[in-house]
Amino acid sequence: MRRLVLPLVAVAIAFAGAARAEDADAKKVIDKAIKAHGGAEALAKLKDKSAIIKGKMNINVQGGIDATMEMYAGGKKFKQDLKFSIMGMDINQVVGYDGKELWIALNGKVVQTKTGKDLDAIKETIHAEEMAGLALLGDKDLEFSTIGESKVGEQEVIGIKVSKKDRKDVSLFFDKKTGLLAKVESRGLDFQTNEEVNDERIMHDYKKMDGVMKPTRVVMNRDGKKFLEMEITEQKYVDKLDDNTFDKP
Predict the structure, then answer these.
(1) pLDDT at 249 over 60
(2) Mean pLDDT of 175-200
(3) Does the structure show a pLDDT above 50 at 140?
(4) CA-to-CA distance for 14 and 168, rounded, in angstroms?
(5) Quick one: pLDDT at residue 153?
(6) Residue 130 has pLDDT above 80, yes or no
(7) What does the alpha-carbon distance between residue 152 and residue 239 come to, in Å, rounded to a whole number?
(8) How many CB atoms lie within 10 A of CB 139?
(9) So what's the pLDDT on residue 9?
(10) CA 69 to CA 233: how far, in whole Å?
(11) Distances (CA, A) of 109 to 87, 89, 157
């Protein structure tokens, strides 16, 4: 059952990061993206808020598993609650991270915890999500450079590499016409296997939520193969989540 633990999917929709563009061409791309996503002022308003996201997904394992999802994220903490059925058995998987410990519970029982160095993969995942934040708030630790033009499906995109000391680079690809984020690509460790993988999160069907454009459909590929597809049915921001949100069962 542990090997069945389903993936974490923050998919660049919950975390917001600050950024600074040194490359002039990169800055033009980022400036256009900021406007496309709702503007710097609207993005900045969400910087310190927490997100509650609901949706459904299909995970490409064991012939395809349909699941419903609720996710809570804020202050570099998160909890993802998945409900799905396998061979007639109803399963509730909850993954929580409070900044110091990650835990996984199945049907209300904690089956796995990770602390210390074992959290490196999770921290890299959060880092990749943060780099998709579009608000230019003067974070001097980030640097941007252009990758060049390419395609995501039929979309023509411009790639921007985001670099931070002691972290892996993350690549952001923006639609040339709309300026919207089309894809986030990063390399990191699979937190279950500790093997390095290449993750792609491809965004579709943007809608305005709380004044900011957000994707409502996300496809995640791992090492070039489709890993999951998620539809976001609800997303809202709150000033603060309940204190017990990230508590273990």
Answers:
(1) yes
(2) 84
(3) yes
(4) 20
(5) 92
(6) no
(7) 35
(8) 14
(9) 52
(10) 10
(11) 20, 16, 44
In percent, how much of the chain has pLDDT > 90? 36
**149 and 157 in contact (C-beta within 8 Å)?**
yes
Return the HEC string of the chain: CHHHCCCCCCCCCCCCCECCCCCHHHHHHHHHHHHHCCCHHHHHHCCCCEEEEEEEEEECCCCCEEEEEEEEEECCEEEEEEEEEECCEEEEEEEEECCCEEEEEECCEEEEEEEHHHHHHHHHHHHHHHCCCCECCCCCCEEEEEEEEEEECCEEEEEEEEEECCCCCEEEEEECCCCCEEEEEEEEECCCCCCEEEEEEEEEEEEEECCEEEEEEEEEEECCEEEEEEEEEEEEEECCCCCCCCCCC
Sign of CA dihedral 201, 215, 64, 67: positive
Q: State mean pLDDT over 80-100.
A: 91
Nearest to 43 by CA among 164, 209, 161, 201: 209
pTM summary value = 0.85
Cα separation, 122 vs 99, in Å, equals: 10
Torsion of CA 102, 226, 37, 68, to 10 degrees: -60
Taking the CB of residue 226, how many other CB atoms lie within 10 A of it?
14
